[in-house]
Amino acid sequence: MDRENLRPIFWEGSQLRLLDQRQIPGKKEWFIAKTADETIFAIREMVVRGAPAIAITGLFGVVLELKNIKSKPDYSELESITTRILNSRPTAVNLRTALQEFHSLLTKEFFESNEFGLFVQKAEEFAVNVLEEDIRNNISLAKNGLSLFPSSPSKISILTHCNTGALATGGHGTALGVIRSLRDAGHDLTVYADETRPYLQGARLTTWELLEEGIPSFLITDSTSGWLMSDRKIDAVIVGVDRVAANGDAANKVGTFPLAIVAKHHGVPFYIAATEKSFDFKIRSGKDIPIEMRSEEEVTRLSFLKKSDGSPILDSGVIAPKEVKALNPSFDVTPSDLITAFITERGIVKPSEIGLVFGDLALEQARR
Ligand code: MRU
């Protein structure tokens, strides 16, 4: 079921309405993008984030660019905006996949034909389809995830990282989508949500979604997973992904790799929920996945330290010496041997089965 109240992206014909995820949980505000540049801003500044949501937003950026063309359409301008959109965030492959599919369907010849109006109409239809397809695929993979757990209502505890819910996708969620399905299937769920330093997608967004859905949860710090798995029974870790290489190595929010090691140590299954749009067969192993480096300020600043009257102790939220250098890779790569299985819309797929299950996709990617 599509969670309309949590949907982050609405196409309104001449503008894209995005739930401003920088403001959550404080307030629910909308960011309106009327140009491709505004969608690039929204992606780079994390108004919208999460691999599938970034891809959908980028596609609508192209559509806005096409709709805003006033003079004779020039293909090189379309190419240049597509490249800028593609470079807005480099790790998640979904954006690249979406833009490649766009270009193989909507060709240069079509663009330069006398049917530019039809080209724009088809581009818009394509973007709307990708949005709707993402929701459908999320719902399918979430249902497939049920097969990994008992069929009769049971007590189940899940640990998750970052935000992989409706907010990160067209509107249902991958890992959080599986969690929703488990709840809908009548299980007695407890979810442990990693805060996900430094950008706090877990603390700010996942807990918000879980509360909106009435799913019992605890927020934990990222370094709590070792204690948690040795103190109480965790049935599974389920996370999302930004890019899966051909050998099954998977890039996801930084902190995923150590979480997988802790899970392996405790014998807890480690699942990655993803649609086929996250698989990149052009990349042989995780070593080739580009890792986005983000600003030092995300690591060195916080603003939660308050005096008893509520005023900030550190006006600027600085929590580290001014001179300190910080490293802020936004993602890490979990080697395939730590991944129990991928939960996909095609079913449950072990890392060693990827080539078999997604053989057609690998061929298609090689052709593009
Ligand atoms: O930096 P973010 O918030 O875009 O990172 C998001 C993640 O790492 C998610 O786990 C991933 O995109 C999968 S979302 C379905």
UniProtKB/TrEMBL annotation:
<dbReference type="GO" id="GO:0046523">
    <property type="term" value="F:S-methyl-5-thioribose-1-phosphate isomerase activity"/>
</dbReference>
<protein>
    <recommendedName>
        <fullName>Methylthioribose-1-phosphate isomerase</fullName>
        <ecNumber>5.3.1.23</ecNumber>
    </recommendedName>
</protein>
<dbReference type="InterPro" id="IPR005251">
    <property type="entry name" value="IF-M1Pi"/>
</dbReference>
<dbReference type="InterPro" id="IPR000649">
    <property type="entry name" value="IF-2B-related"/>
</dbReference>
<comment type="similarity">
    <text>Belongs to the EIF-2B alpha/beta/delta subunits family. MtnA subfamily.</text>
</comment>
<feature type="active site" description="Proton donor">
    <location>
        <position position="242"/>
    </location>
</feature>
<dbReference type="InterPro" id="IPR011559">
    <property type="entry name" value="Initiation_fac_2B_a/b/d"/>
</dbReference>
<dbReference type="InterPro" id="IPR037171">
    <property type="entry name" value="NagB/RpiA_transferase-like"/>
</dbReference>
<keyword id="KW-0028">Amino-acid biosynthesis</keyword>
<feature type="binding site">
    <location>
        <position position="89"/>
    </location>
    <ligand>
        <name>substrate</name>
    </ligand>
</feature>
<dbReference type="InterPro" id="IPR027363">
    <property type="entry name" value="M1Pi_N"/>
</dbReference>
<feature type="site" description="Transition state stabilizer">
    <location>
        <position position="162"/>
    </location>
</feature>
<feature type="binding site">
    <location>
        <begin position="49"/>
        <end position="51"/>
    </location>
    <ligand>
        <name>substrate</name>
    </ligand>
</feature>
<dbReference type="Pfam" id="PF01008">
    <property type="entry name" value="IF-2B"/>
</dbReference>
<keyword id="KW-0413">Isomerase</keyword>
<keyword id="KW-0486">Methionine biosynthesis</keyword>
<dbReference type="GO" id="GO:0019509">
    <property type="term" value="P:L-methionine salvage from methylthioadenosine"/>
</dbReference>
<dbReference type="InterPro" id="IPR042529">
    <property type="entry name" value="IF_2B-like_C"/>
</dbReference>
<comment type="function">
    <text>Catalyzes the interconversion of methylthioribose-1-phosphate (MTR-1-P) into methylthioribulose-1-phosphate (MTRu-1-P).</text>
</comment>
<comment type="pathway">
    <text>Amino-acid biosynthesis; L-methionine biosynthesis via salvage pathway; L-methionine from S-methyl-5-thio-alpha-D-ribose 1-phosphate: step 1/6.</text>
</comment>
<feature type="binding site">
    <location>
        <position position="201"/>
    </location>
    <ligand>
        <name>substrate</name>
    </ligand>
</feature>
<feature type="binding site">
    <location>
        <begin position="252"/>
        <end position="253"/>
    </location>
    <ligand>
        <name>substrate</name>
    </ligand>
</feature>
